[in-house]
Amino acid sequence: MISCSQFKALGVATKWRGDPLDSAGNGSPIWRDTGLLGAPARAVVCIIAGVSLLAMGWLYRLLFCPLERSKALEDVGYIAEDGRSRAQAANEVRRRRKTGELPPVYPNGWYRVLDSHLLERGEVKNVSVLGEQVAVFRGQDGKAYVVDAYCPHLGANLAVGGRVVGSCIECPFHGWQFRGDDGKCVRIPYAEKVPEFARVRCWPSCEVNGQVLVWFHCDGEDPHWKVPEQQEITKGEWVYRGRTEHFVNAHIQEIPENAADIAHLNHLHTPGIVSGVDLRYTNSKIWEFVRHDWKVQWEPEAEPNKHCSQMLVKHSLTVFGHHWSLLDVHVVARQVGPGVVFLLFDHSFLGRGVIMHCVTPVEPLLQCVSHTIFYQSNIPPPVPKFILSAECVQFERDVMIWNNKKYISKPLLVKEDSAIQKHRRWFSQFYSENSPRLRYQHDTLDF
Fold first, then answer.
1. Omega into 436 within 30° of 0, i.e. cis?
2. CATH number listed for the domain at residues 69-98+228-429
3. Does the domain spanning 109-208 belong to CATH 2.60.120.10?
4. CA-CA distance, 322 to 234, in Å (whole number)?
5. pTM confidence score
């Protein structure tokens, strides 16, 4: 039996109703509840419930949701000072930075335009790639198609208000319909006959490894190679665990050239990821207890895969001077053409997987870089998500360099930098005589 004083101690307000009879006719007192909890107790319960819901939501996202981060150009690599916003700082750097003597801006090769899971059947999306606007749509047959975004009739954007009809894209302006596989116009609602020459440019494309890619060649040549299929992804043994996306203000060649710049790893990427991405603070003595150590080798492949190269990476982690061998990771980074890299992980404890590192030129000095991770389905999701997060931190340190540097066509190199020149010779195969160059730079590159 709980006494009245105990009820009051629990914060339950009670009121004496006198001495009426209970249902059995006895004269025992009856207590009337006028409230379950006092105001302070209710506030505490609400706070606990709110925190619990937030914790459950965080745990659910950690265990079941892919890691997805998308950064705007101004979000990474720029220092906003003197009351300026990040966007203002980024625009100022873009206007004032010297570009140097640049190679052609769009190498020949395959480029990612979209992740497959972002394009539903019957959906169309507008994408900026290689200085062009394209319409990417998935027909009712399930196949993805890429065509020029602008209708040749009067220039309407097919991806803005256009709809998918079978395997065709319909213009939102006058209803002209264009086939996805060859771009030919097959229907004009108000015309008796469709002219044979009526067509929109159709981009050679493929869908592999959970991505839609397009082929670019300045002379319109057919693809010179295929993007390799990662069988573990196709068979569902490796599943999608997340993606990061960044925009980098640099020439495309600067990014893959990092693979051959072995010396920068032991300077830029040695501080632990806990020290963050701002290079003004990564070498702080506060974070010296964590160090990443790297051993790297870069080599081009021979025929028939001369368009490929490999970087072999051995990574080890040291904490308070103690080597944690359990976290030793060996990575094979295989680059296929100028825009696609397979970062293959194989660890006895952490499992196996791949990060698809893709670089796609949006315009001459603006690259969209994505990292998409697929990992063993039986490995807990926090493992690949942590790997992707760590890769994101290391990558953003590079972004701060790329966003502010000048391209040096004839760099001052020492003997230990020989791989850089070797990489430039290898990468030059993706340029042709007619590859587009940046002739001049506008002074209005604001965004």
1. no
2. 3.90.380.10
3. no
4. 40
5. 0.85
